[in-house]
Structures are given as structure tokens and as C-alpha cells.
Design brief:
The complex is a heterodimer of chains A (about 525) and B (about 325). Chain A contains 25 helices and 10 strands. Chain A is α/β, with parallel strands linked by helices and about 525 residues long. Chain A folds into 3 domains: about 230 residues, MetI-like (MetI-like fold, Orthogonal Bundle); about 100 residues, Osmoprotection protein (prox), domain 2 (D-Maltodextrin-Binding Protein, domain 2, 3-Layer(aba) Sandwich), CATH 3.40.190; about 180 residues, Dipeptide-binding Protein, domain 3. The two termini of chain A are about 50 Å apart. The longest helix of chain B is centred in the C-terminal third of the chain and has 16 residues. The two termini of chain B are about 35 Å apart. The chains are: A alpha/beta (about 525), B alpha/beta (about 325).
Chain lengths: ~525, ~325
Amino acid sequence: MNEQQQTLWHFMWQQADKLLVQTLQHIGLTFISLLIAVLLGLPLGILIARNRNLSGIVLGTVGILQTIPSIALLGFLIPVLGIGAKPAIVALFLYALLPIIRNTYTGITGINPTVKEAAIALGLNKQQLLLQVELPLAMPVILAGIRTATVINVGVATLASYIAAGGLGEFIFGGISLNNTNMILGGAIPAALLALLFDFLLSRLQKLNIKTLNRTTLAMPVLLILLSLLYFVPAAYGTKLVAGFTPEFMGRQDGNVGLERIYGLKIHTVVINDAVMYKAAYEKQLDVISGYSTDGRLKAYDLVVLKDDKGIFPPYYAAPIVRNQALEKFPSLEKTLNLLVGKINDSVMTDLNYRVDHLHQSPERVAHDFLKAHGLWRERGGKKNGTVRLGSKIFGEQYILASLYSQLIKGFTDYDVVAKTGLGGTKICFDALMNDQIDLYPEYTGTGLLAILKPPQQTIDSLGGDKDKTFAYVKDQFEKKYGISWLKPIGFNNAYALMMRKQQAETFHIETISNLKEYLKNQ
Amino acid sequence: MIKVQGVSKSYNSLKAVNELSLEIKEEENLILLGASGCGKTTTLKMINCLIKPDQGQIFINGKNIQDQSPIDLRRNIGYVLQNNGLFPHYSVAQNIAIVPHLLKWDKKRIETRVDELLEKLHLPNSYRSRYPHELSGGQQQRVGIARALAAHPPILLMDEPFGALDNVTRTKIQEEFKALDELKRKTIVMVTHDVQEAFTLGNQICLMDKGAVVQIGKPWDLLFKPSHSLVTSFLQEQRLQLEFKTILLAALWPWLPTADQTDNHITLSSQSTLWDALERLQQNKTETLQIVDHKKEAKTAGFEQLMSAIYRYKKTIVT
């Protein structure tokens, strides 16, 4: 525990500059959206308190907005507003709206009717009634709404990092991707502290004497604006090109860290979720992204992979890994699985992924068409002699590989196949294999090395990113440690890659990462 | 001064006020009396435009109130509510100063007026900066009255002003209210369901039922010249007390014995009510009272003489 704490402090200290930037962005996002929500929500709340037959529609609409899951809301906003601060602010604004409108409405309608009647009977006009009676008396309730909205916003703002708007979510989601607890806590603790701090400050404001409140309510908008401006403090060091990297890529040695260390690449970087990254590049909101070299979207969005001329991205060659007992039990299995070797290179795999991910063809059909084209399709035999249990992770390429293997086994052997596809991540698949729940699944050499074996850094360095050395090492270690065999690699490499729009890369004559660095240096 | 002409108001299908007409003269103290739901509060609120009548007109000083801005109208009509309706976020002084403030009086004038009203309503000046929730119910109601009087409105509307107070406080405030010099020259319309209160404070009483006037007249008229059996039945329960409170000693004059020569009498004006006389007897534990009329003629009466006089007096009315 103590060690954990020390390393957490160590992490936060080391990353202090990033942490500061993220915190400022986080506060900025929270309060820009809050400010807009107050500016719009307060008058709207007053309006529906005056015309109560409107309240059903307005509160209903805002209430429905509130029920949209935050990620989905961001998803809806990206096509309209793109990525970055804009959709994040709009989403946060929409979430802040309900508590503010509802509390303004409740606050005003909840005022003792006798007081209101007295005010009217004394001859206050509508404006005087609002400013001298309704707002001051509703203020504690309105402030409670603003307080709720603030806390919600601090929480939801962590998701802003999905769409390149920054904030403490960069650490949180980076940490989750990298399974780095210190990184998660480095983002989560400041976020929680921010929520607690603002909640506390607003609760103090609520308890202030109603009389002094008048002055503080005037100070509030000023404070809101100042806090909002914090977002713009971490002025990004501008380069001509903008890179969008996933939170995982940002924190990895074989990711952004390596790009900076080995290539000396300096580029204005935003953190973004993998799901929207490719599209953002296509729509010219990003110029360089960190993708996977066989991703179907490469083809869909007309992107090219920059050559990793200094070899910082370790090889991720795909190969089936099989329990040794299974190889003994099913003698013709290895031979059958090896039928695929050499048939699929990077661009073929990209094309297959493209069909599944973008043309929405079923993995079975894509596998069937592929095998037919390569003369590997056979009707399944009649007699069945045991069942092979096949696993796969939960993304398109793995489904395709599982379908290919499944159809090959059915065609070329007398075994039956049960496919347990969609087994989540690496850990789930590997555990299933170890616990004799599946017999095989397709794995990548890089994953085997870095996610499963996790050897010391020296060992990794000694492999030098060489594909054959890496394969030999993982094959050897898996055999020794787990009794699991790596069969021959299929031939494609689904590694990290930097990619750009084809047209832009050609215009600037950028083919390799070194080219990119030179180009940026000359700007 | 205030003229209500054929005014009606319905809520959904329910007629709260049904073609009601009445007239309130200057400096009159009219009580709208009736059971709850009889339309008395609705009638009151139509006078200061808190409720708009469906039909009919209301004139104040000959001017139709529909032709005036309701804001200006209300600033010239004091309004006292049952649950005081004080602004909880305003201090006592701020509450009293609301209308003068709206009328843009200068600061000094407002301060003087607040001081004056606090004194008249028996509120210590140190209460200026207190907030309504720090005051007792009776004190809150006094502030409510002060607030209504602040800008010298010629008309005062009161909606069950003492209804929420306990008996002791109510009697006390009613007495203070009666003695308040500022009210002597005001036209007052007060709503109440309390018959005793109506007879104590009103010089005209308007008994209402189902949104219409049953009888309007002096307390004496309602008691002894009822226009409808409803009036008699409404007053039935407390009739004796009401009669005693209404009948003046002057009315009993012919049946009271002439003054004897003994001293040590308590002296009472013939303008006092029979109730006052009985109370005096009770309080001072004496057998007889000396009653003096405006011509300085004196009579002496004890309990028995008073009772006999009222018996005979009532006989003359019934015939």
C-alpha cells in the first residue's frame, strides 16, 4: 500500500505539468458549459414558472436529454460538431440544463403563495416581483440546482477526453487502457477533489444569509466566466498538423513516448477515443492518428500507414495459439490451421476488416468468400470425431479469423467446432485457454510479449522489435510456461501505426515517420 | 367611495360571486361576513384587481378600476392578509417600507414613517432589523398592518387579518386596531367569518351567502331587523352576547332608574354598550354603576336593573 502511494505521488509529481493542464481544461470545460446552462436555464426556468402549461414540455424534453448516456450523446454530437471542445461543451451543457431549469422552476413555484399575493397586492410590477421576491426567495433552490449541475459536469467532463477535448479523463482512460492504476488515480483523484471542492464552495454559498446573497449572486457570473477561461490557459503549442492519439497510445513506450524519445517527434497532440479517431482524420479535424495497421477504416477513410523506419512499434503478427493437449487430441488440427499461412498480408486483412466493419458483411460470409477464392472451401464431412473449441476476442478481425478457422476445420477434418467468440480482451481469452474452456484462439506476438509474458525491459529491448526474434521468444516462453503452442504466423502484422490521409501524405511527400518529423521541423 | 356593481366571478362551473352589488361610503368600516366559500374573499380581491370579475364593474371614487393600471391602483390600497404575507427575506423596516420605496419616497421620509408606525403599533424600535421569522404571530400581524398603512392609502382591505391568531392575542390586537387613530379616516373593507369580530370592528356589516348579499346594514339592523331567516340563524349561536355588545346604554335610558345620591359609583358614558357596563360591574365587584349622558343627566343601575331594562327595550322592538 505504502509503495503504491509513493509511486502514485511519484507519478503525479512526474506528470505535474500534464496534470495541471488537464485540471485547468477540466475546470474550464465544466464551467463554460455551466455558464451557458445558467444563462439559458435560468430564463427558461422563469418562463415555465410563469407559463406553467409549458413546463411539461420543457422539463420533459430536458429530462429525456438527461437520460441519454453520455457516451451516446457525444456520439450524436460528433457528426454535427466534429471533435474537440465544441461537442464536449454542448454535451455538458445539455446535462447541466435539467437541474438548473428544474430547480429554478421548483424554486419559484415553491414560494409561499401568500408572500407572492402580498407582493402583487402591494403593487410590485412583474419585474419587481421577479427581482425582489421570486429570485431572492428561490435562490437557495436555484443554487442547489447549479451545485448539482456542477458536480454532474465535473464527472461527465472526464468523457471529454474521448473526443479530443482534454481534461482529466486523459489520465483516467489512458490508465484503464494501460492497466496503470497510478495513472487512473492520477486523473480520478483530482477529478473527485474538484467535485468535492466545488460542491463544498457552492454549499457555502447556499447557506449565506439571503441578504448578502444579493452581492454574491452578482459575483457568481464573474467567477463563472473566470473559471471558464481556464480552458484556454494551456495554450497548445501549435504545429501545422494536429495528431490525435488514443489514451492508451499516449502512455505507451511503444506509443507516443517512443515517438518522442526515438524519433524526437514534436506534434500538437490531442487525446481521442479510438472509435471516432479515423473519421476525424478523414474529416480533416486530425492529420495524424495512431491506428492499427490492418484496421478496415484505413481503407474506408482513404488513409495510409507511415512506415516505422526506426522500428519502435513491436510486431503484432497474428498466429493461432493452441493448448498442447488439444494438438495431441486432434492430430490433424495443426496442419489444417496452417492452411492459412501466407494467404493474408496486411492489405488483405485490411480489406477483410473493411468488409465486416464498413460494409457490414457477416464474418462468416467474408470468411466463406475468402476461402472459396483461395480454393480452400470444402463441404463439411459427415462423421464427427470430437469437438474443437475455438475462442476469439471481441473485435471484427478476430471474428473473421475465428470464422476462417472454423470453416477450415469443418471442411478439412472430421472434427466439429464450437466457437466461443467475443471473449472480451486478451486476459479473458488467455484465461479461458489456460482453464481448458477453449482449445485455441488467434493471438498477436506483441500482445503475447507485452500483455501476457511481460518480460523485463532489457529482454524487450534485446528483441529490438524484430518479428522473427519476437515470435521465437514468445513461442519458446509459452511452451515452457503454459504448455501452449504458437503455430506459424498467418502473415499480417496488426501493429500500432501512424497514419495520415493519403492525399495529404502525398502532397507533403511523407512516407515514413522520419519524413513526418522532418516536415514538422521545417515548419 | 367604493361601488361594486353587478359583479360575478365563476371558477369552472362554480359561481363564487353572483351579481353582487354594494356600496361603501368614505370612512366606513364594512365587514364582509359569511361562512367559508360564500365569496367574501373573492369580492375583496376584486377590489384591488387581484381577481378580475367575469362581469360587472367596480368604481373607486367614481373611476372604473378597469381603466386604471392595477399597479398604481394597488399602491393606493392597503392590503392585510391572514397569514401576514411578509417578505421573509426583508427585515421589519424593509417590509414596512415596501410601498413607500415603490413610490420612490426619499430615504429620510421613509425612515421617519417606519419609526412612526412601529410606535403606533406598539413594536419596539429595536425590531427594525429583525426578520419576520424572529417575531411572534401577533407581532408579524402588526408589521403586516404597518406595511399596509405605510404610504397613507385612503382604502384598506383586510382579508381575515386576525384569523390566524390565538384568542388572547386576537382580542388585544383588535382593541389596538380599534384605537388606532390612522384608521379613523380610512375606508376599510374587512373579510371575516368571526361574528364577534364583525360586531366589534364593523360599523356596517354585509352578510353574504352563495356569492350574494343577504343583508347589509348596521350591526343593530342585522340583529333586530333581519331581512331573511338566514341572518337570524347565522347570528343565533352568540345572539345574547351580540345584542349586549350592540345595544347602547342610551337606548335603555327610559327604563333605567334615576341616579341615587350615594357616592362611590363607577361612572360610565351612555354611549357605552350594555356589554361594557356588565364587564365593569364584574371587574370592579360593585353592585351599581353611574351612567351619564351627554346632557350630564345621570342614572344608576345594577345588574338587575340593566336586565329588566333590556327586557323591556326588546319588547318595544318586536312590536
